[in-house]
Write a structure and sequence with these properties.
Elements (H helix, E strand, L loop, with lengths): L8 H13 L4 E4 L11 H4 L4 H12 L4 E6 L12 E4 L5 H6 L6 E4 H17 L4 E4 L6 H11 L8 E6 L6 H7 L18 H14 L3 E5 L5 H10 L4 E5 L1 H12 L5 H15 L3 E4 L2 H8 L1
Parallel strand pairs: 1-2, 2-5, 6-7, 7-8, 8-9
Antiparallel strand pairs: 3-4
């Protein structure tokens, strides 16, 4: 991903300061811990990388809205978005050795406990908006309950309500070292061919307490954005993901397209489809072009 880097805490503060100076009102933080384990400890630890970054950014830029991505894949040694256990008589080691054999399962309810703990930890560190991206069943409700019990009833939840099992996530997973070590995420992320399921998942997240809904990826799913905008009366976000960014960058670097023209055309298409919020790696460039 040309021009996109993993940042230390001090570098993240500088990046946030530059974005804020361009008129960007919010940023979303993802973390890459020093160590990973099977309990995603780095996601919910008080001194986790996102927690430390959030505190540092808030000290410098108290008015900047910080969105905290809540998922476990970046912090799990196996790279899945939830707790994993072996299924059947095989050990987890056997599952790793033969990932194509269906010898593991994602433990949904145990994952919810870690996600809720992560959300509370992030808000205590200064995060303003919680954004669960894991796609576990019931996670919005579990997070809402945990936040309310911790005294954060006014903290909004931006739910990755329709997150598709997509090939467009590749560059991010490489940068964050978060690709699954075995199997894939199709058992909990959504089938790209099923629009009706997307509408059901969004409706369920709203029932559980989501304040903002999001579609991910953006451009390959403009029809889903449009359908959600027509059906649901909540703020609607869309995530222009790493693969979308990388394709534009690759074509521009080969002089096949005009980078500035195409990046703005892509963002306008997402806005035209109905998104009122766009998460994009082009935020600074777009802000400069819009002046």
């Amino acid at each position: 991903m040309p021009g996109v880097f993993n940042l230390s805490v001090d570098e993240a503060v500088q990046e946030a300061r530059q974005a804020h100076s361009l008129g960007i009102l919010s940023v979303i933080l993802f973390g890459l811990p020093d160590k990973k384990d099977e309990a995603a400890t780095g996601a919910w630890a008080e001194d986790g990388i996102v927690q430390r970054a959030s505190r540092a950014i808030k000290r410098e830029l108290p008015d900047l809205v910080i969105v905290g991505d809540v998922c476990l894949c970046e912090y799990m040694s196996h790279g899945h978005c939830g707790v994993v256990r072996a299924s059947g008589p095989q050990s987890l080691g056997a599952a790793v050795a033969a990932p194509t054999a269906n010898r593991y399962e994602i433990v949904n309810d145990a994952s919810l406990e870690l996600l809720a703990r992560t959300a509370v930890s992030l808000v205590r560190a200064g995060v303003d908006v919680i954004a669960p991206s894991d796609m576990m069943d019931g996670r919005v409700g579990a997070i809402r309950k945990a936040l309310d019990e911790a005294g954060f009833s006014h903290t909004p939840i931006l739910s990755y309500a329709a997150k598709f099992a997509s090939g467009f996530y590749g560059p991010f997973r490489e940068a964050a070292d978060s690709a699954p070590q075995f199997g894939d995420r199709r058992s909990y992320q959504m089938d790209g061919a099923n629009l009706h399921e997307a509408m059901r998942e969004i409706a369920l997240d709203i029932e559980e307490g989501a304040d903002i809904i999001m579609i991910k990826p953006a451009m390959p799913y403009l029809d889903v954005i449009a359908a959600a905008r027509e059906r649901f009366d909540l703020p609607l976000a869309a995530y222009q993901v790493s693969g979308e960014y990388a394709m534009i960058e690759a074509a521009a670097r080969n002089h096949w397209i005009d980078r500035e023209r195409v990046l703005m055309e892509a963002l306008v298409s997402i806005r035209r489809a109905g998104a009122s919020i766009i998460l994009t790696y082009y935020a600074k460039q777009a802000a400069q072009l819009l002046g």
